[in-house]
UniProtKB/TrEMBL annotation:
Coiled coil: none
KW Nucleotide-binding (keyword) present: yes
Keyword ATP-binding applies: yes
Main EC class the enzyme belongs to: hydrolase
Limits of the Helicase C-terminal domain: 319-475
Keywords, sorted A to Z: ATP-binding, Helicase, Hydrolase, Nucleotide-binding
GO molecular function, one term: helicase activity
Residues making up the signal peptide according to the UniProt record: none
Name the record gives this protein: DEAD/DEAH box helicase
Annotated EC: 3.6.4.-
Domain Helicase ATP-binding: 64-259
InterPro entries, alphabetized: DEAD/DEAH_box_helicase_dom, Helicase_ATP-bd, Helicase_C-like, Helicase_put_actinobac, HRQ1_WHD, MZB, P-loop_NTPase
Any Pfam family matching the protein: Helicase_C
Amino acid sequence: MPAADPVDLLRATGARDGRLVHLEVIEGRAGRTADWPQWADPDLVEGYRRLGVAQPWQHQVLAADAVHAGRHTVLATGTGSGKSLAAWLPAVTAVRSDHRERAAATGIAGHRRRPSTLYLSPTKALAADQLAGLERLLAAAQVRDVRVATCDGDTALTERDWIRDHADVVLSNPDFLHFSLLPAHRRWQRLLKGLRYVVVDECHAYRGVLGAHVALVLRRLLRLARSYGADPTVVAASATTAEPALTAARLVGVAPEEITAVTEDTAPAGRRTIALWQPALTEGWPAEGVDLPARAEQDEPFTGEVDGPRRSATAETADLLADLVTAGARSLAFVRSRYGTEVVAEQTRRHLREVDGELAGRVAAYRGGYLPEERRALEEDLRTGELLALATTNALELGVDVSGLDAVVMAGWPGTRVSMWQQAGRAGRAGTDGVAVLVASEDPLDAFVVHHPETIFGVEATTFDPTNPYVLAPHLCAAAAELPLSDADLPLFGLPDEALPAELERRGLLRRRPRGWFWNIARPERPQDLTDLRGGGEPPVQIVESGTGAVLGTVDGARADATVHPGAVYLHQGRTFVVEDLEDDVALVHEETDLAYRTKARSESSVRILSVRREQTWGSGREGEPAEVTWRFGDVEVTSRVTGYDRRRLPGLEIVGSYPLDMPERVLPTTAVWWTLSAEACAEAGVGKDALPGALHAAEHASIGLLPLLATCDRWDIGGLSTALHPQTGVPTVFVHDGYPGGAGFAERGYRAALEWVRATRDAIVSCGCADGCPACVQSPKCGNGNSPLDKAGAITVLSLLLRSAPA
């Protein structure tokens, strides 16, 4: 137990200076239990009892009964509500029942297909955590005839051979299915022939392009299993979301009425406190003339308007994390980027060294790109309490059962309400009280959410489109390589006719035969390599220490130019490295101590319009009438290139030097929404030729920041470009495009909600108290031009011009 109440600590440190904007208390509830199902294996039930589960919760039994009966099921309840029991109870019971029946059978009846279960999670950390929990359960039940194992990209080849031949429960992820298991399905036919259950954990995490990819991987899996004579039941576990049955149906490829949805959470829940936190003003910007109420004893929201820059969310998070650790609270800090996790962990350790050096050694970072053994060691240290605090990316957001955590700090809005509640739910698991702090980052949406707490309470639907032809086409190729693609398969993949396979045949990827479409084996590439489920499409880059040859980690290939270019600073577990060279998917680095600067890449981009799918016009532009504004949605090609980088001095990150780079161009075919209006209309409204580029640039940044309010996306899922004279439109143009090949539906959502989007964007800029533009309104952390030029007043004028032209 912590030595001090985290809520009291937050009030004491944040109420008087306005950082604690809002405190929301969600009262706990009592749980409701049910009897164990009669069909459940008695040894397994006894194992649960030895682990402290005397009786299951009602929602666990409802879901387990549906799964045992062979109905596709989705269990959508809160974090820590025990969703895994609904899957493991029928899965392990099936294996044990088969063992008993096989032992009692005589002759050929004893040689049936052994039932198997395939568990899929979005992260390796979650699969490892589930394996540890399942092994504890089997040990408590004294069950030795159920063999379980994880199998993913980190698994040695010899272990894979054993898993293929013997494992009853295999824990993996969609990436391994796509790249390894499904292409080599004949080697996995023992597992597929007996496949009884497919468990899809944290299915709400599959949204946008990733969701579409995973849905198609699942459909390929089910298609192959049925070809081997199996008929698997899918059980999906999800956080509380809107329309969970629809989400599960899209994943599996069935009608929503074929899904049994269990949504009432009957597990007990402790009191949860949500604190909305605004970083402090930077030194030299006191809140003069503003009434900051002393709210140590009251919870009224802070409403004072303060001009001036604020500290970064990462710096504020490090301070809060250090305070919580000092007070004895076991904590997690969720940070948006890999780089940010390293920064938060190191700053927290630095603060703690001034108090207690032993505490500093119990803080670490956790992120993708670490070697597998490093990740496993960190996970175990967090479970045992050896670590008091961990700064992590969303890799630990999903499902990892870490008991005893007291607090969670979120450095910036996680992107969706589901993610926010998942992260907040890491604290206070198993019915205990927990505290979560959302620290607003320098982002228009963060500033809006912190001052409008009503926007974060509620649920949202998980959206993705498996019929997106850019996503579907490579999966059709992979499916055809696994098993000839027939007309009967087209409905499974959401195809109304054979137009798309015929187009793939025309391009030489498939070949039509009487039995259906086959993969063209004369092609030099493998069909599974035509797409990357995570959207990048480029191989990862290894980070190698030049002096020792040690592999420190990896970085996504698509991000390598901007993060590990020559001269870039790379952080790893508190150590600082400088990149010497980037070539052949390897970045060579050497360690530097006491480095007084960090680096940030600069880039340039252009957008070429390929086709227009939809178009609408606002206003007429005739004399005395509103200006004509044209909105379009269509296909574009975004070309970008890293042109150089800046060195920024610590701690204020002032630019102390700029250096050129010669990097290759990257081309992204995607979809975009864009609007145009005439330069003459802007000039008449008061935005002349010199001010127009900055006004459009500021409007673009703010638009990108506010689109996640309307579309279930993250600002890092989208990009943009503004220009006072686009070569194809011939007039001032602002683009907002999806950041994934072929598009993800986010730009299309912006087109459909154009009026609401523009209104929210203008209001966010107007309501910001800064004078000339700041990260909370028009500056962007993604900007490759260093946020120059920007004209806040001009952006307000241009957006007001758009609103005057909008239809009533």
